[in-house]
Write a structure and sequence with these properties.
Radius of gyration: 17 Å
CATH superfamily: NAD(P)-binding Rossmann-like Domain
CATH architecture: 3-Layer(aba) Sandwich
Number of helices: 7
Distance between the termini: 24 Å
CATH topology: Rossmann fold
Shape: globular
Number of domains: 1
Number of strands: 6
CATH class: Alpha Beta
Order of helices and strands: HEHEHEHEHEHHE
Largest sheet: 4 strands, parallel
Oligomer: single chain
Structural class: alpha/beta
């Protein structure tokens, strides 16, 4: 979803930089675009701070920051999950989101302007077995983080939006305990669908704030 959003925004003329752990994936995402990339591990605070220093130097200013890093595990029940797996998921999905917010907010506060989009999950609105114990807990943390920060920084002219995608055809499906069929992949959201939602949020006037938005496949139930 992060890749699709970056390419969508680049296509409409935004100056885009991206970060991730794997250089080959970053280069593939940037191929054929003007997107620039730099390695970052969101779970490591020093790495995040270095990335945002580079991004600020490269761009001059950061108007929009999209938190799209996320992982999951196959052992999703409390019985099967190992403690170190819990730590890993929380470090990326929850602490990673915090690290990025903590790094980008000072310059946004100084300019009294900015938009932060947190790509959470419907598992961050409803605790569901499909996402699993650690993933749901990490996304609930991301949800609360986004809402609390949103309320805090509104007077600074900064908007924070939590996006809650339902099932999306991404490589994260490969971490499902049960393999997903090609038919199922075709019938759920595609990354470009979420990217269009993100673009619509970016294009809103600065005075318009959408705190939360759920986007899901038509066939996925919403309880």
């Amino acid at each position: 979803m992060g890749r699709a959003a970056a390419r969508e925004l680049d296509a409409v003329g935004c100056d885009v930089v991206i970060g991730g752990r794997r250089e080959s994936v970053l280069q593939e995402a940037a191929d054929g675009t003007s997107i620039r990339c730099h390695p970052v591990d969101v779970a490591v605070r020093d790495s995040v701070n270095t990335f945002f220093e580079w991004a600020l130097e490269t761009l001059g200013q950061i108007d929009v920051m999209i938190n799209a890093a996320g992982i999951n595990i196959k052992n999703r029940s409390m019985q099967e999950m190992k403690p170190e797996q819990w730590d890993q998921v929380m470090a990326v999905n929850a602490t990673g989101a915090y690290n990025c917010l903590q790094a980008v907010l000072p310059t946004m506060r100084a300019r009294k302007h900015g938009l932060i989009i947190n790509v959470s999950s419907v598992a961050g609105k409803r605790a569901i077995a499909l996402g699993g114990i650690a993933y749901s807990a990490s996304k609930f943390a991301m949800t609360s983080l986004g809402i609390c920060v949103s309320n805090e920084v509104a007077t600074d002219g900064i908007r924070v939006t939590n996006v809650y995608p339902g099932e999306v055809n991404t490589p994260l499906l490969e971490q499902r305990p049960t393999p997903v069929s090609e038919e199922h992949r075709r019938n759920i959201l595609q990354p470009d669908d979420v990217a269009k939602v993100i673009r619509s949020l970016v294009e809103l006037p600065a005075a318009v704030h959408i705190p939360e938005i759920v986007v899901k496949p038509l066939g996925q139930q919403w309880f």
